[in-house]
Amino acid sequence: MVARCQTSIIVGVQAHHVEVEANVGSGLPGLTLVGLADTAVSESRDRVRAAVEHCGLAWPRTRITVALLPASMPKRGSSLDAAIAVAILAASGQVPLEAAASTCVLGELGLDGRIHRVPGVIATALSLRGSPVRLLVPSDAVDQAGLVPNLTSGGITDLLHLVAVLRGTRSPDAAGNVVAAPRIDIPDLADVHGQAEARRALEVSAAGGHHAAMIGLPGVGKTLLAERLPGVLPVLDDDTALEVTAIHSAAGIDAQGLARRAPFEAPHHSASSAAIIGGGQAGRVRIGAVTLAHRGVLFLDEAPEFARSVLDSLRQPLESGVVRIARADVAATLPARFTLLIAANPCPCGMGMGMDSACRCTALQRRRYSTKLSGPIMDRIDLRVALERPTLAELGDPGEASASIAGRVLVARDRAAARWHRAGVPWRLNADAPAGALRVSHPPDEAGSRLLRSAFSRGALSMRGADRVVRVAWTLADLDGTDRPGAAQVATAMALRGGESTWAA
User: Fold this and answer.
1) Which of 208, 317, 338, 366 has its CA 20 to 30 A from that of 409?
2) pLDDT at 179 (0 to 100)
3) Structural element, H or E, at residue 75
4) Residues 157 and 200 in one domain
5) How far apart (Å, rounded) are the C-alpha atoms in residues 90 and 123?
6) Cα Rg of the chain (Å, integer)
7) Is the peptide bond before 70 cis (omega within 30 degrees of 0)?
8) How many angstroms separate the CA atoms of 91 and 25, rounded?
9) In this model, does residue 499 exceed pLDDT 50?
10) Is residue 295 domain-shared with residue 146, that is, in the same domain?
11) 455, 466 in Cβ contact below 8 A?
């Protein structure tokens, strides 16, 4: 008899459905597992048998063949254990065939029959949304499945509970109320004294999703400012929150509710390209920091200390908003639409800035340091700010609170969203506009356009730079409450983008 059960594996952040077929036929006792299974999946033979026998269920004393379909797709991990057990029990007549075939089961089996949670529950739930298939997951992960609407789901504690649910003699555990993830206390911008230009740049970055860079002496407040950026970002809407939570679930990060805060990733400068961008090997796709920062902020502190290859690998996701990973046995497209925020010292010793510079670096050292941030990367940075030491007067004045700035950011985002909705384009933020689109279809007024053409003709802006100036100008117009960018907004946008000389050797 052939029985079927549904399950899934996670490749990147996407769930790929796997159909488990089991046949109990004649022959010498044994279990054959086919379908490009890795070591963890192959070892499920012993886990499944031990769990079945420990729970007092009958293990077939004949030949068992289990096929994992599609056979051409590599399978890895222990999330298939429970589905394999169900298919075998259904093939041996201990579980109804129809109930097994219409159920998707996720979970790792312990030797005593307990069902343990596995990564990617939300991704699997999203793939089944609107489907008649029922999803059964470990009870300690049922709240994750419950985050997805239009889905029948439930929790199971062990193999006996799972069998009882499929027989209809017991109900699965229900998900609790959907709640937001525990709020993380974010430092307030009121703690930062002075640095008016940098604070303004962070506000513009938050309002329009623009990439930003800060350069300054050690201790001037670069990291302090960056850590407070999440506090001025709006909370995530339902769809975006579910998208972010699903990514974290696929990465194995425990999701304790719906992630309402924009993610903030700050990898160490020793991180490899695979840690930042993501990688893949042996049928597995590793999620990098750019994907974990999706719909949020990626902060690179001491950016020139990162490997040049790591920084240059950011070019594709900065432009396209995705990371494409292709290996011999695996391929995946990962979301990576984030706001890049970088901080750097002016030179290796950190003192090469200002009138009272005490720099000890040679010209060659400064050049090598500055060229870590290549031209193509810097050309993709919309806002560039040089930070100076605050004066004594500024130290005595508290800065504006994050809540006040967040209010203006939200109003500006709402203005932009309403405008792009009326225009019938899919952009969510001004920074999402494709290259040249705003310059052609939504240019600044005549005075602003004239200023932009003048800067371009002088060679002060590249074509990409001009496009990004227009994006920033629109964000400034949204913050100022004007219907169209003028000369003032264009001039401010170019000033915020300026400072190439600060970053050059």
Assistant:
1) 317
2) 56
3) none
4) no
5) 26
6) 27
7) yes
8) 9
9) no
10) no
11) yes
- pLDDT of 505 > 70? The answer is no
Secondary structure class of 206 (helix, strand, coil):
helix
Number of separate domains in the chain: 3
Same domain, 153 and 211: no
Pair (324, 427) in one structural domain = no
* 54 and 96 housed in the same domain: yes
Q: Say if 184 falls within a structural domain.
A: no
Question: 362 is in which domain, residue-wise?
Answer: 189-399
CB atoms within 10 A of CB 365: 16
Instruction: Give me the residue label for tokens 């240059």.
Output: 312
Structure tokens at 154: 């439930």
Q: How confident is the model at residue 256, as a pLDDT?
A: 67
Determine the distance from the C-alpha atom of residue 201 to the mean position of all C-alpha atoms in its chain, rounded to a whole number.
23
d(CA 190, CA 192): 5
> pLDDT > 90: what percent of the chain?
65
d(CA 206, CA 405): 10
First to last CA, the chain: 74
Does residue 182 have a pLDDT over 80?
no
Half-sphere exposure (Cβ direction) of 409: Cα atoms closer than 13 Å:
26
CA distance 504 to 475: 27
Task: Give yes or no: residues 382 and 419 share one domain.
Answer: no
177 domain residue, yes or no: no
Q: What percent of the chain has pLDDT over 70?
A: 94
160 and 22 both lie in a single domain? yes
Helix (H) or strand (E) holding 99: helix 97-101
> What digits encode the pLDDT tens for the residues 101-159?
999 999 999 999 999 999 999 999 999 999 999 999 999 999 999 989 999 999 999 99
Looking at the structure, tell me whether residues 132 and 202 fall in a common domain. no
DSSP 434: P
Q: Which residue has tokens 């809540």?
A: 403
